[in-house]
Structures are given as C-alpha cells and as structure tokens.
Request: fold
Amino acid sequence: MHSTRNLENPAILTITIDRPPRNAMTLESYKQLLAALQESHLDETVGCVILTGAGDKSFVAGGELSEHAQLDAERAQLRTALIRQVFDTVRKHRAPVIAAVNGYALGGGLALMASCDIIIASDTAKFSLPEVKVGIMGGTRHLKRLVPDKVVRWMALTGTMVGADYFLRLGAIQEVVPAAELMAAATKMAQEICQYSPTAIQLMKETLNLTEHMDLDEGYHVECMATSIMKSTPDGKEAVQAVLEKRRPVFKRK
Reply:
C-alpha cells in the first residue's frame, strides 16, 4: 500500500493497493488501506483521491482465501467489521474518491469500487461476485447502489463475471478507456474536480450522501439548506464574484 502526490497538482493523491500477484486483501492490507484513507481524510491539502491497484491484472481480487479459511467465527466477524469500516471511510471521505479499475474487481474489490464517488475502468476490467462459488457471502448491498436489483441477484446467485462495457451501459461506471490510458483519465477527472472550491466539493459530497436514501421532499429540503450554507461562505461569494468579473476564482477553503 502506498500513497503518492501528483507532481503537477499536489492536491491529487493516489492510493495504490499493492499486494502481488492479484491484490487479494488480507486483514493487514485492509488495516493499511484504512490508515491511508483516514490520514488523507484529515489532510485538507488533499482535494481528490484516486484509488487503484498495482499492476495491470487486478484492482482488488477480493479477499485472500487462504487467510479467510483460517479464521474462526469471532475473527471473521472482526474482519467483516474492519472491511465495512473501510467502505464507509471511502464513502464518507471528505474528498471525492475516484476508482481507477485496472483489472479484476471481485467480491470485496467490487464493493470497494462501488463505495467510490466516480468509477473509471480499463477496457480489460472484469467484475464479479464470486462468493457463492466458495460458500461465503458477498457485498451485494454495495452493488445495489450501482445496478438494478435483478442484475445484482443474477451476479450473486451465479457468480457471473461481466466486462466494463456491460457496466458502462448500465451506468455503473462513468468511463471506459484503454488500459494504458487509465491513470491519465483518472488524473484528468481529478484535476477537473480540484479546480473548484474544496468547500463546495465537500458540501456537495456530504449532501449527496445524506440524500441518497431520502424521498424527494426530504432531499430537496437538505439541498436547500446546503445551498444556503454555501452561499454564506467566503468561497461561495468568491465563486459568484469571479463569474461576474470574468476571472478565475481564488478559493481559500472557507
């Protein structure tokens, strides 16, 4: 697991999951990922996070089965709680998190991907919930945030693997690019996000999370409150003034 700053735009942080050969996650791997996410969440100089896997074979190929087989019920429960904490930390991260999916996203890897705000995949990416094949439960609830219920049931009950183009047609991912262009595409997306007010981006993400399961009236009420809050901030006022004066805004995260 390692984190690197973009040299041209230090506000972009890339967290790379690096556990050869398939980036299958162990307890220690999840602990390291959680620590990297928590550290970047607290760092206000981070404007956007890119999450990817090392190599060109896998984003995350699920959990390490050899470790899973050795866990008793108590340790298995602790493992599940840790994994859930990782997913929640991605979803509630102060900055947007872009998944750059460079290969297989299986089981927990698919759920990790689904927890991200934006998903860009290589044309070689593959997605599956293979848990039924090894007698364990998978992250179906996370996948339901991306695709219709019947697709989730089909994938979970059969372990079927699908490609990036299929998920793109369903709207589950936002962009499919050649493998060699994946990180460039993710970086371009991150640069676009980082040009805007960090305060507005953070408030937008918090609002999207809050309203995800609300009905229309409740969600609209929250959005109205968020709009009022943003308008009252120095960054909100600066954005409007910059448009009126036809210049680039200078944001101060306030």
Observations:
- The mean pLDDT is 93.
- The chain has two domains: 2-194, 198-244.
- Residues 73-91 form the longest helix (19 residues).
